[in-house]
Amino acid sequence: xxxxxxxxxxxxxxxxxxxxxxxxxxxxxxxxxxxxxxxxxxxxxxxxxxxxxxxxxxxxxxxxxxxxxxxxxxxxxxxxxxxxxxxxxxxxxxxxxxxxxxxxxxxxxxxxxxxxxxxxxxxxxxxxxxxxxxxxxxxxxxxxxxxxxxxxxxxxxxxxxxxxxxxxxxxxxxxxxxxxxxxxxxxxxxxxxxxxxxxxxxxxxxxxxxxxxxxxxxxxxxxxxxxxxxxxxxxxxxxxxxxxxxxxxxxxxxxxxxxxxxxxxxxxxxxxxxxxxxxxxxxxxxxxxxxxxxxxxxxxxxxxxxxxxxxxxxxxxxxxxxxxxx
Length: 326
Ligand code: ADP
Ligand code: MG
What we know:
alpha+beta; T-fold; 2 domains; 3-stranded antiparallel beta sheet; 8 helices; 29% helix; binds adenosine-5'-diphosphate; binds magnesium ion
């Protein structure tokens, strides 16, 4: 039997908690908190939304006034002094780059100039253009000075982007803030990048459903996710097809070419930030290397759907245990 599955879909039951949907960071966020009454729930949700908007202003590459845009604008010119928070995020991202052997890399963003996944591309960029852009990529080149909290991209044309880690980071931060504020349980779901803590209002554990892409109404399996994050990479809408090969919006920073072969990668990890970055890295690594890699990491699990809708899981995942009975 071929097992088919797609994006994890959080289904929040009626007694789960207070809930709000909001467009943030260019995607749909879905926030749920357990609270004593509607009034306090509203205050908590306002807090979380403000926190996510604050992070967006820090890391957005679209907002020309963000510190991230300043770093990119000053590439090849001068270091930019940034908030410690942004400095630390870049440092952690570079740590994940080392861990993934460069499959995840903030400086992939220089390649944004030659690849577009919104339907506007009509042919492959020529080799020379790819070669020239990939020369501007490499996390090792980012100069971080902890003394002055400054970041320098030493070459004109270098660029960083948080597309593969920002939503996860924002989800973690919103969760931390709410936990500190005393919220006993909740879920921050950034379009499939989610983190959960505590239990639902009715005392049951939070669960995430892995859905069947051929019938999104049906859950294929339910995974308990209390105090865990789960993130899916793979956007069914963002890809290009050239000569029968489907290229995704995730690019191998080492070659400059988009990855192919994986339709979605779902990573379970203690933190959404790490899960987010690893899900992206797995796309670049491919099925076999991705599974081997994840199997070596404690507390991290992986579900891959390939182009034939076939399922590949890491050693820690036993689908039979969690199989939904519908
Ligand atoms: P999704 O957008 O499907 O949730 P990701 O979290 O993996 O998936 O984010 C993909 C985005 O990350 C891309 O749209 C791009 O902005 C950025 N990106 C692409 N390739 C890489 C890479 N190798 N390393 C870091 N960021 C990347
Ligand atoms: Mg990611």
